[in-house]
Design brief:
Blueprint (H helix, E strand, L loop, with lengths): L1 E5 L3 H13 L3 E5 L2 H11 L3 E5 L11 H5 L6 E6 L4 H9 L4 E4 L4 H19 L5 E2 L14 H15 L5 E4 L6 H11 L6 E5 L5 H9 E2 L11 E2 L1 H4 L4 E5 L6 H13 L1 E2 L8 E2 L3 E6 L3 H6 L5 H7 L4 E2 L9 H16 L6 E2 L1 H9 L5 H15 L4 E2 L6 H7 L14 H15 L4 H8 L3 H12 L8
Parallel strand pairs: 1-2, 1-3, 3-4, 4-5, 7-14, 7-15, 8-11, 11-14, 16-17
Antiparallel strand pairs: 6-8, 9-10, 12-13
The structure holds adenosine-5'-triphosphate and magnesium ion.
Length: 453
């Protein structure tokens, strides 16, 4: 579950963040109302801790957008000046609770237990993600013939909003980015909502897509609007479509053909004018041959498929992308004007990039942390890349060889130091989830596991 803390006091963010992390939450932070709202729109937190007095606005002004169906967060207000009637008013306006500052963590624990019970129920029926169109990362960087062809297809498909879009390609190669780009260029007024078909059970996925009527099943306490309704005038992005269970595939095909659907347990035919896009890194044609994906749905989606090639086949795009990320990430990290040495560029160019653009982006971010200022040099390259491009003579002497685990652990410690021991930031820099980082730290503290790494 995700908790967003909107408070301009770093001390509160730190203490509350630490406390919530301990309860297993993923933590997001913002120091102003506008930044908090922007983050909430893209990240859809479950709980928002909202300071009453923010530098740019009165926290209560955010109550409405944060609790609206678009974001649907449970909001807890925090304030140094608690007045009973204000608290009552805030709760009438949709706040779940009103905490006086300084925060009493025991008090918060009790309220959270109650809230978590509610959230559990809600989360079982709320798994889609609204993709931001404003994150500035929707420029498809590259000028290889592949990418130029994709850019052309993107503008073509943007004009034909009734044609479904199927995007194929290895993990991390930019499928979601292509989908966002089509959505953005098509100038439709509705939102773009994504759902990962691999992450939900069949019944959950169905109720996410179609919605359900109150009482359709035991936990359906309220009527729920599904993705097809939420994405009205916009885009439904079905990620990992190859994992969609066959019965849902059949229902999806009907929606694509008739443009109508029924909520689970409903009898009314509802209309949808959402654009459908789907992506997968699987060989979907092979799945069709083996009866694991419906042939008719495949043909319906496969009108003008876009295959995003792996990064290793895109020639000098690697360099363009590296320079783009150095600039873009450098700006967000306060390291403006950084350059990459030509030797590093050459090594990046020769690496195989099994994790594609996502891996390149993560590595540039790591190197930006490691390089003090000015230029990114060979010594800042991760060893796997240096090794890939260098000869055996550049490797350490046998006496200095360390295990992969040792190297990883040293690197984790290093990144933690660089990020002031902030687990969230360190996890982002390392390209792993916060929970993976915490699990690794636990293993490191206990002196390692039985793994043979
Ligand atoms: N051509 C590109 N130009 C700029 N950024 C890119 C490009 N391609 C990918 N990226 C960036 O790389 C990262 C991974 O891309 P994306 O999420 O679109 O990959 P994906 O193919 O959907 O991956 P997965 O299969 O794991 O879901 C994102 O941060 C994206 O913004
Ligand atoms: Mg993706």
């Amino acid at each position: 579950m995700k908790a967003l803390i909107i408070d301009d006091e770093p001390g509160i963010r730190l203490a509350l963040g630490h406390f919530m992390l301990g309860r297993g939450y993923e933590i997001l932070e913002a120091s102003s109302g506008s930044a908090g709202l922007a983050l909430a729109r893209t990240e859809l937190p479950d709980i928002v801790f909202l300071d009453r007095k923010l530098p740019d606005m009165d926290g209560e002004a955010l109550l409405h957008p944060l609790t609206s169906p678009e974001i649907g967060a449970s909001v807890v207000i925090m304030t140094a000046y608690v007045e009973l009637d204000e608290a009552v008013q805030a709760m009438k306006n949709g706040a779940e609770y009103y905490f006086p500052k300084p925060l009493d963590l025991e008090h918060i624990s009790v309220i959270l237990e109650r809230l978590e019970e509610k959230l559990k129920l809600k989360n079982e029926i709320g798994h889609f993600r609204r993709l931001s169109e404003l994150d500035g990362e929707d420029v498809i960087v590259g000028d290889s013939p592949h990418i130029i062809r994709i850019q052309r297809l993107v503008s073509l498909l943007a004009k034909n909003i009734t044609t479904p879009v199927l995007i194929l390609g290895e993990s991390g190669c930019g499928k979601e980015m292509v989908a966002k780009s089509i959505h953005k260029q098509s100038d439709c007024k509705g939102p773009m909502v994504e759902i990962n078909c691999a992450s939900l059970s069949e019944s959950l996925l169905e109720s996410e897509l179609f919605g359900h009527e109150k009482g359709a099943f035991t936990d359906a306490k309220k009527t729920k609007t599904g993705l097809f309704e939420v994405a009205q005038n916009g885009t439904v992005f079905l990620d990992e479509i190859a994992e969609m269970p066959l019965p849902i595939q059949a229902k999806l095909l009907k929606v694509l053909d008739s443009r109508t659907f029924r909520r689970v347990g409903g009898i009314a035919d509802l209309k949808t004018n959402a654009r459908f896009m789907a992506a997968t890194n699987k060989d979907i044609a092979a799945l069709v041959r083996n009866g694991l994906f419906r042939e008719d749905l495949f043909y319906r989606l496969n009108v003008l498929p876009i295959t995003v090639p792996p990064l290793r086949e895109r020639g000098r795009d690697v360099i363009m992308l590296a320079e783009f990320f150095v600039k873009r990430l450098g700006e967000s990290m306060g390291k403006v004007g950084m350059k990459i040495s030509s030797e590093v560029l050459e090594q990046l160019q020769h690496f195989r990039w099994p994790g594609n653009v996502r891996e390149l982006k993560n590595i540039i971010e790591r190197m930006l942390i490691l390089a003090p200022a000015g230029e990114i040099l060979r010594e800042h390259l991760p060893s796997e890349i240096r090794r890939g491009a260098s000869s055996v003579k550049d490797w350490p002497d046998p006496a200095d060889l360390r295990s992969l685990r040792q190297v990883e652990e040293e690197y984790i410690v290093h990144v933690l130091k660089m990020t002031g021991n902030n687990h969230s930031h360190a996890a982002v820099r390392l390209g792993i989830s916060r929970s993976t980082l915490l699990a690794r730290l636990k293993i490191m503290k206990s002196g390692g596991s039985n793994s043979d790494m």
